[in-house]
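Re: weekly structure request thread

Next one in the queue (84 aa):
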Amino acid sequence: MVVSLLTVCGTDGKLAVSPPLTAPLPLNAVALDTDAALQMCMWYDEAATIVGGWHHLHFHPSIDLEKVLAQARHTKRWPSVKRG
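Done, posted below.
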């Protein structure tokens, strides 16, 4: 589950509480499991988060962050390729 001040995402990847369409993504977000971490990485632009960006993404210590980031990069680069 992704938790923030404005948004809550369920394990199905759908927003449970949605911000207004004009609201920006939250500045601080927390992913508590691997699926939420992947979804959060898909929503946020990596350049706007990791390398001096505005958004600060936080991940539970049990999440393999390198694996999640690699999977998100792959999916963004080749969105039509199905993962097994």
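The longest strand covers residues 28-31. The chain has two helices and five strands.
Next request, please.
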